[in-house]
Amino acid sequence: MNYEINAEKKILGRLATEVAILLRGKNNPSYDPSRFTSNVVTVFNTDRLAFSGKKTGQKLYRRHSGYHGGLKEEKLEDLLKRDSRLVLREAVMGMLPKNKLRAKFIKNLVMLKGEIKR
Predict the structure, then answer these.
(1) Distance from the Cα of residue 104 to its chain's centroid
(2) pLDDT for 23-80, tens place per residue?
(3) Which of 8, 13, 27, 55 could form a disulfide with 48 if both were Cys (CB 3.0 to 4.6 A apart)?
(4) For the chain, what is the HEC assignment?
(5) End-to-end alpha-carbon separation of the chain, Å?
(6) What is the C-alpha to C-alpha distance for residues 93 and 105, in angstroms, rounded to an integer?
(7) Which of 42, 54, 41, 47 is nearest to 8 (CA)?
(8) How far is Cα 78 from Cα 57, in angstroms, rounded to an integer?
C-alpha cells in the first residue's frame, strides 16, 4: 500500500507515531509483528513541521564519534535549517522496533521537503 501524508502544521511526535504505525502495518487486520509489510509512506512538506513549546531552541540531537571528546550536539533549529527530513527520520526511528526489521521499515519511508509533483 502507498500512503501520502502532508506534514504541514503537524506536530512532530504525533506525525511520527502515525508514520510508524503505517510502516509496520498495524492498521491492517492481518498484522503480524514478526512480518515485514511493504507499505510505502510518503511524507511531504517536512520543512513546515510544527513544534510545541520552546523545543526549537532547547531540543538537542546528540551523537558520538567513539573518540575522546567526540560528542557532537546540534539544536533542533539548526538541524531543521540543514535538512528537515533528518528530524522526522530520527523521530520515526525511535518509534520502530529495535531489531532487524527496523532497517527494512525505514527504507519504505520517503520524505520530501516541498509539495508532491504530479
Answers:
(1) 14
(2) 999 999 999 999 999 999 999 999 999 999 999 999 999 999 999 999 999 999 999 9
(3) 8
(4) CEEEEECCCCEHHHHHHHHHHHHHCCCCCCCCCCCCCCCEEEEECHHHCECCCCHHHHCEEEEECCCCCCEEEEEHHHHHHHCHHHHHHHHHHHHCCCCCHHHHHHHCEEECCCCCCC
(5) 18
(6) 9
(7) 47
(8) 9
Q: Is the pTM of this model over 0.85?
A: yes
Cell numbers 510502516 correspond to 23
Cell numbers for 25: 502495518
Tell me the C-alpha distance between 50 and 37, whole Å.
Answer: 29
Answer yes or no: are the C-beta atoms of 38 and 23 closer than 8 Å. no
- Which burial class, exposed, middle or buried, applies to 19 when counting CB atoms under 10 A from its CB (0-12, 13-18, 19+)? buried
